[in-house]
Structure formats: C-alpha cells, structure tokens
Amino acid sequence: MKHTDLDALLAAAQAADANVEAPPRVEDGLRIAYREARRAAPAVEPTRGFGLRAAREWLWAGLAAAVVAAALLAVSRPLRTPGGPTVAEADPDEAFTPLVYGDPWSDVEAVQVVRVEMPRTALAALGYVGSAPVPDVATAVRADLLVGNDGVARGIRFVR
Amino acid sequence: MAGTDRDAPSDDDLLLLLRDGDEAAFTAFYRRWQGPIFRFALRMTGREALAEDVVQETFLAVVHGMRGYDPARGSLAGWLFGVARNQLLRRLRSERPYLPLGDGPGHADRPAPDDVFSQVAEQRELERLRRSLLSLPEHYREVLVLCGLQGVSYGDAAEALGCAIGTVRSRLSRGRELLAARLGVANALPAVADQVGAAGGGR
Q1: Closest Cβ–Cβ partner in A7, A19, A51 for B70
Q2: How far B35 CA lies from chain A's nearest CA (Å)?
C-alpha cells in the first residue's frame, strides 16, 4: 500500500499506534507508589476543593500565617534559658526533604529556616508524603521548614 | 483521545476519587491516559525505555498531587502532555547526542496479515515516516506528534508546549511541509490549520 499524501500516511501511523501502550510493569510500579504515598499522607485536603484555587490559596495563606507566627515567636522568645531544659535539636547532618515537585529551588532567591510545631495531619497539606516521626495523628510534630522568599515551604526536617 | 466514554466516570471524578485514596480510580485514570502519553514519548524519541520512564514520571506527578494543575487555568490533557514533554526534554538534553534508532520492532508489529506483501510495504512506509519525524527539529516534531498523530487539539498542544495557539498552527504547517518533502509525498492540505482547528483545536 503506497500512501501518496501526508494525511493518509499520518492517519495510517495513528491507526497502527492505536494499541501501543506502556508495558504492565509501569502500572504495577505506579500503583505501589500510589499506595505508599496514600499511606504516608492521609487525605486531609478538602476533597471538594481539589483543583480549586481558593482552597489552595487558603492552605498557603494558613501556612504563611503559621510561619510568620513561628518566626515572631522565635525572635521574641529565646529558645534556651540558662540552666533550664534544652529544646529539641534537629540533626544538622539530616537533609531536608523536598516539599514541592520538581526542582524546589528553581524560582527562589533566598530561603530561611523556620522551626514550627504543627499537627501531624498538617504535613500532607504542606506536600509531605513520607512518614512522620510520631505515630499518633493527634500528636504535634516539630520541624524545621525551609521557606523561600515567596513564603512557600520548600523543604522539611524533623526535630527529634 | 482519552476520557471520551459516555458511561465511564469523567477525569474530574477520577481525580477526586484518587485524591481521596481510591486506588481503583487511580488505576482507571492511569489506563485512560498512559497510552497517549506513552505514544507521544515513543514517537518523539523512538525509544521505548525512555517512553516508559516518561510515563512513570508523569504519573508520579499525579500520585504526588498534580502540582501546577488548575482546571480553571488549563486542561488536563495540556497539563499531562506538558509534564511528559518537560520530562522528555530534560532527558533528551542530558543524553545528547543520541541515535534515534528505536529499541526494536516490537511496537511496530501488527497482527499477521492476509496480504503479507501489502502489510510489509505499509510497515516500511510507517517506519520511514517515524524516522523522518525523528529527524525533524524538536519544535516541529512535537506538534506533529501531538496534533498529527495523537489527535490533540491545538489548544491542549499550546498548553503542553507553553506557547500560543498561533505558534502551534505555524509550526504544524511548517513541520508538515518539511515532513512531506522528506517523504516525497503530497502535503494535500495547505490550509491544514483551519481544518484541524475546526475539529476542536481552537479551544
């Protein structure tokens, strides 16, 4: 069969490709990744609001408010008092876990580390999909957040 | 294209469910979209292994919350193909130079033909088309693969490529000219942009 015009050839190629798909192993791997992600991050974002800009903006606004409040607290109150109990320490060798997909630093000019305490369930809203270091959902976690100059948290490191 | 069965749940429904942890919804969503993404990557590169990786990375972005996708600002197809394209470009640019020779004939195979000679001749034509596509500059190749082979609308292609619809039209027109010349076939539709656009590309 000789196709004499481009459209006929493209149509034949499209028809020949109709059943071309990724091999099943890709689906198997992705389902495992999906399960892991769901297990690590119980759904806490409002499902009705998925994809709605307003819901996302509220989440970020809440996060920004929490970050600002934590920063103000950190500045106005010393973390150590002489002779008093020491605060929890983060392992300086522990890497920050990225909270955004792709390159977290692509559009950031400066970052700062902010220590926060928040409910475990808020981790998912931040974009964290790993296992939090506390088993109880009601327990608060303490963490260092790497916050970009746009107010968005880019990375997290838990405080033991 | 994906997502057109009347009785099947819509993409939006599946996204809501998979967001809530419904693995069956994720599987359905994956099965609906993996073919177009895989074919796009395969025809852009001629390499199955790389196309597999692109599918995996694209759907991992779905698993991890589809950052950057906002239905109020763009289509799902545009977002998915855009993620796939970014993965493709990143990999291609890190691997250059490479030979787009394909991984083998597996996906070009079709069921045993009654007319073997006719079938073989068509296979050769299609292989020639695919090789010619691979030899085109990237910006022509991607619009030809998306709009010419995948049936993606101009609007979705523009979103995926991050350019204006007019740019998609002009690249498609020029890409067709180049491809037809390399294959020695007629480019029968000089006003192809209008015709394809009328089929939904102007969204």
Answers
A1: A51
A2: 5
- Tokens 């926060």 -> residue: A116
CB pairs under 8 A between A and B: 132
Asked if residue B157 has pLDDT above 60, the reply is yes
pLDDT of residue A160 exceeding 80: no
Do the chains contact at A53 and B72, CB–CB below 8 Å?
Answer: yes
CA B36 from centroid of its chain's CA atoms: 6
Interface with B, mutate which of A1, A14, A103 (most B CBs under 10 A): A1
In the predicted model, is pLDDT for residue B137 greater than 50?
yes
The pTM of the full predicted model, rounded to 2 decimals, is: 0.59
Least confident of B26-40, B71-85, B183-197: B183-197
The amino acid that residue B178 corresponds to is L
Domain locations along chain B: 11-95, 107-200
Mean pLDDT score of chain B, rounded to an integer? Answer: 82
B97 preceded by a cis bond (ω within 30 of 0): yes
Indicate the CATH number for domain B11-95: 1.10.1740.10
Query: pLDDT band at A81, cuts 50/70/90?
Result: very low
The 3-class SS string of B52-75 reads HHHHHHHHHHHHCCCCCCCCCCCC
- Domain spanning B107-200, CATH class: mainly alpha
B186 and A21 within 8 Å at the Cβ level: the answer is no
Q: Which residues of A fall within a CB distance of 8 Å from B192?
A: 7
Which residues are CB-contacts of A53 (< 8 A; sequence separation ≥ 6)? B70, B72
Contacts of A47 (CB under 8 A, 6+ apart): B16, B19, B20
CB of A28 within 8 Å of a chain B CB? The answer is no
Mutate to test the interface with B, among A9, A39, A60 (most CBs of B within 10 A): A9
Higher-pLDDT residue of A3 and A47 is: A3
- Measured CA to CA in angstroms, residue B31 lies from A31, B27, B35, B173 at distances of 11, 6, 7, 32
Q: Are the C-beta atoms of residues A160 and A88 closer than 8 Å to each other?
A: yes
String of DSSP letters for A35-77: HHHHHHS---S-GGGTT-HHHHHHHHHHHHHHHHHHHHHHHHS
